[in-house]
TrEMBL record:
Residues 97-535 form the Glycoside hydrolase family domain. Coiled coil: none annotated. It catalyses: Endohydrolysis of (1->4)-beta-D-glucosidic linkages in cellulose, lichenin and cereal beta-D-glucans. This is Endoglucanase. Belongs to the glycosyl hydrolase 9 (cellulase E) family. It holds the Pfam family Glyco_hydro_9. The active site is at 472, 514, 523. It comes from the Bacteria. GO terms for molecular function: cellulase activity. GO terms for biological process: cellulose catabolic process. It comes from Chitinophaga terrae (ex Kim and Jung 2007).
Length: 548
């Protein structure tokens, strides 16, 4: 089988595919639509994958740059899916992964003009959400109702979680901060399009307005999530009518909220100054609450022993807060210039910084600090840390010619999030250094997500020839439409296989199954789409700048 980015390639960027499985041929052939060979080259040496028992050989057709539609052929292998070579080749998928958030919107109907055949009724007005007994306090006793409308559904489920919204928003707003000119001109055809606010920000504001409702103005604390007691059946949003609760306030929620609202305040200031001011006030209040409650985890199991009804939805139960302090301090410092936040940032700095995920957000603070200033001794240190990780990636090529898979631990729940965050980090490293190698390696991880991987899937719904048809996503499963909601990235290979589904392959890089029930490998989630929004649009933006 030939694995490749099923969307295609830029004319003047590197172009790689791999053939997986035993082949004895020495050469590959690039065929045009008339099946004429337009280019040929030697296959690379056999490479044994460290993440499965696959053997691959590299196909390098970088030297070919004519635009058109092509397939790759290797004697003894199945001819590849068709793909493009053309400028702006990632444009459609880049827009789609941002548009994916529109389809996740709670509390409003999706109209055919924007949603096409995936139009649907509004779900979850969340107009009178109950304070769960575990969240009751002197201001809001158990049973009090508050409105928490709007926002995006987290994933395949219909709950709304502050921690996961946090990293998602930070990543999307960061994409805007790094590529403002590009996003100022990008339309995703959403109801707000054309309102003088860039669509990326329009989309983020829809979730921001929900986040703001999750803060208790009485004390500044932030509820950990807005949720049902248990997960819904696989029904459309308007048919999911279980009682909604907000649950206990937590330190992680307060700090992630403080970070997002401080960043949003900065980014939205030129567009919506009043909203920007409210965001900064809310941010300072949440920070203050966290200072008074520096170690409150959301520990669902312990809470369930004390209060009913028991809550069994996602936990995002982070209980190490250094990284949240780092991120929130960075955003508040960047927005206000207040030295107290700089001191807090320095006080919580880790020894080494890791690739971000919902449980570790320190890197988002590094990105923000480096956007603000590149000249201080502190920023020299931050830059060294970021480049250390990025440079470590440069030395490694998986059997699929990617950074993804350098460690077998890359294959975790939501492994495509890892691939996308690696790509985002590499693009950020390019911004710091202007060293083209980083862009090329970032592009390779995009190639991975769009098909050059051991499963042969292009993991974004609707984009590619072999794409997930049965994601663990309630609207996609319940809407009666064959094609799933488009523009959503599946979790990807996860040898943990916690869903107990039957997997055809169980080795780390192939433990993926396209079944609705596979929430551990085939769910979608807002935090996984976000770094892909950064990566795909960042690559497009850089290609446009370079004039291709
Ligand atoms: O992405 C989360 C992953 O890191 C965890 O291992 C997993 C189990 O706790 O939960 C994932 O997040 C899910 C969340 O809890 C509920 N909504 C769907 C999310 C994606 O599967």
């Amino acid at each position: 089988e030939i694995m490749l980015n099923q969307t295609g390639f830029y004319p003047y960027a590197p172009k790689f595919a791999v053939v997986a499985g035993p082949v004895t041929a020495a050469s590959f052939y690039l065929l045009n639509e008339a099946k004429d060979t337009v280019f040929t080259g030697k296959l690379g040496a056999e490479q044994h994958s460290s993440n499965s028992n696959l053997v691959t050989r590299l196909i390098d057709f970088s030297a070919f740059s004519d635009t058109g539609t092509y397939r790759l052929a290797v004697p003894g292998a199945v001819t590849s899916y068709p793909f493009y070579i053309r400028p702006a080749v990632m444009n459609a998928v880049a827009i789609a992964v941002l548009k994916g958030y529109y389809y996740q919107r709670a509390s409003m109907p999706l109209l055919p003009a924007y949603a096409g055949k995936w139009a649907r009724a509004a779900g979850h007005p969340d107009a009178d959400v109950t304070i769960h007994p575990n969240a009751a306090d002197q201001f809001r006793p158990a049973g009090t109702k508050i409105p928490t409308p709007l926002g995006w559904y987290d994933a395949g489920d219909y709950n709304k979680y502050i921690v996961n919204s946090g990293i998602t928003m930070g990543t999307l707003l960061g994409a805007y901060e790094d590529f403002p000119e590009y996003f100022n001109h990008l339309s995703t055809n959403i109801p707000e399009s054309g309102n003088q606010v860039p669509d990326l920000l329009n989309e983020a504001i829809y979730n921001l307005r929900w986040m703001l409702t999750m803060q208790d103005a009485n004390d500044g604390g932030v509820y950990h999530k807005c949720t049902n007691a248990g997960f819904d059946n696989m029904v459309m949003p308007d048919k999911a009518r279980a009682t909604r609760y907000v649950v206990q306030k937590s330190t992680a929620a307060a700090l992630d909220f403080a970070a997002v609202t401080a960043q949003a305040s900065r980014v939205l200031k030129p567009f919506l100054p009043a909203l920007a001011d409210s965001c900064l006030k809310a941010s300072r209040k949440a920070w203050k609450w966290a200072e008074g409650h520096p170690g409150v985890p959301y520990n669902q199991d312990s809470i369930n022993k004390l209060y009913s009804p028991a809550i069994s939805t996602g936990t995002y139960g982070d209980n190490r807060f250094h990284d949240e302090w780092v991120w929130a301090a960075a955003e508040l410092y960047s927005t206000t210039g207040d030295a107290a936040f700089l001191r807090a940032f320095e006080a919580y700095l880790p020894n080494t910084v890791q690739l971000p995920n919902w449980g570790n957000v320190a890197m988002l603070g590094y990105y923000t600090m480096l956007r603000k200033d590149r000249s201080s001794s502190l920023s020299t240190r931050l830059q060294e840390d970021v480049l250390k990780l990025a440079t470590h990636y440069l030395d490694f090529y998986s059997a699929f010619h990617t950074v993804m898979g350098q460690s077998v631990r890359d294959f975790t729940w939501g492994s495509n999030d890892v691939a996308a965050h690696q790509g985002m980090l590499l693009l950020f490293a390019y911004r710091l250094t202007r060293d083209k190698r980083y862009v090329n390696r970032a592009l390779e991880n995009l190639d991975y997500i769009l098909g050059r991987n051991a499963t042969g899937y292009s993991f974004v719904t609707g984009y590619g020839s072999k794409t997930p048809m049965f994601p663990h996503h309630r609207p996609s499963a319940a809407d009666g439409i064959a094609e799933p909601v488009p523009g959503l990235v599946a979790g990807g290979p996860n040898p943990g296989m916690q869903d107990k589904c039957k997997y055809e392959f169980t080795d780390p890089e192939r433990a993926y199954t396209d079944q609705t029930a596979s929430y551990a490998s085939n769910e979608i989630a807002i935090n996984w789409n976000a770094p892909l929004v950064y990566l795909a649009n960042g690559i497009e933006a850089l290609q446009q700048e370079a004039g291709y």
